[in-house]
């Protein structure tokens, strides 16, 4: 699979051969869904918590005698049936994460890359370098027509480019090891540097 390589100013910079095993798969929504769900569940804090009847600040004294009142039998005022009482089976602090094998996670990333390539939303650039000026980079991005883009660089991101892109709305940069299914699918355009292509191929082989 061949794709043109461009520079940030829009000029052509040759072409690159993309690995069919990474960019030529038929995207499967079920695989992408499982990986995104795994990602989002792991990111969920799970710090929600309510007080049970043993934790609310109430006396445990029996509120009235067992028999002869004509009412139902009750013990402490902290019972869930009363206003201000504890909550029955409410949320507690826990992890929402679940397991997903490395093999499946790699497969999901390959399908995400293939989905972008098939949709025509994949752009290959020669490199992601900048003078560190936000205005200049923003103009280049505007000229290229990238509204919501994710840039994946090589092993590390160029500091000047990261600094210039930091304040541009809709533009995100990640090193190769940070590439993930959720962020790829979330953006309208996936931009990968030549170094990023090589690193992704090495990571997903």
List the helices and strands and how they pair.
Elements: E1 2-6, E2 12-17, H1 20-23, H2 29-43, H3 102-118, E3 122-125, H4 134-144, E4 149-152, H5 159-165, E5 171-174, H6 181-186, E6 189-193, H7 194-204
Parallel strand pairs: 1-3, 3-6, 4-5, 4-6
Antiparallel strand pairs: 1-2
Compose a concise summary of this entry.
The protein is 35% helix and 14% strand. With 205 residues, it is of the alpha/beta class.
Walk me through what this model shows.
This protein has 205 residues and is of the alpha/beta class. The chain has 2 domains: 2-43 and 97-204, 3-Layer(aba) Sandwich (Ribosomal Protein L4, Chain: A), CATH 3.40.1370.10; 50-90, no CATH class. It is 35% helix and 14% strand. The chain has 7 helices and 6 strands. The protein has helices spanning 20-23, 29-43, 102-118, 134-144, 159-165, 181-186, 194-204, and strands spanning 2-6, 12-17, 122-125, 149-152, 171-174, 189-193. Strands 2-1-3-6-4-5 form a 6-stranded mixed β-sheet. A hairpin with a 5-residue loop joins strand 1 (2-6) and strand 2. Helix 2 packs across helix 3 and helix 4 (134-144) crosses helix 5. It is elongated. The model has no long low-confidence stretch (mean pLDDT 93).
């Amino acid at each position: 699979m061949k794709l043109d390589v461009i520079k940030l100013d829009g000029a052509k910079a040759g072409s690159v051969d993309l690995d069919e095993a990474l960019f030529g798969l038929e995207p499967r929504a079920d695989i992408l869904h499982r990986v995104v769900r795994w990602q989002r569940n792991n990111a969920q804090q799970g710090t929600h918590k309510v007080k049970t009847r043993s934790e609310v600040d109430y006396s445990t004294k029996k509120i009235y005698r067992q028999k002869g009142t004509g009412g139902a039998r009750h013990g402490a005022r902290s019972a869930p049936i009363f206003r201000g009482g504890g909550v029955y089976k409410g949320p507690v602090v826990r992890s929402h994460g679940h397991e997903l094998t490395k093999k499946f996670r790699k497969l999901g990333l390959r399908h995400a890359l293939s989905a972008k390539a098939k949709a025509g939303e994949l752009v290959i650039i020669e490199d992601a370098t900048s003078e560190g000026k936000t205005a200049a980079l923003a103009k280049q991005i505007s000229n290229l027509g990238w509204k919501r883009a994710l840039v994946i660089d090589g092993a590390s991101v160029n500091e000047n480019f990261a600094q210039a892109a930091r304040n541009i709305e809709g533009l995100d940069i990640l090193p190769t090891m940070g590439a993930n299914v959720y962020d790829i699918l979330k953006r309208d355009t996936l931009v990968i540097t030549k170094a990023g292509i090589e690193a992704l191929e090495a990571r997903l082989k």
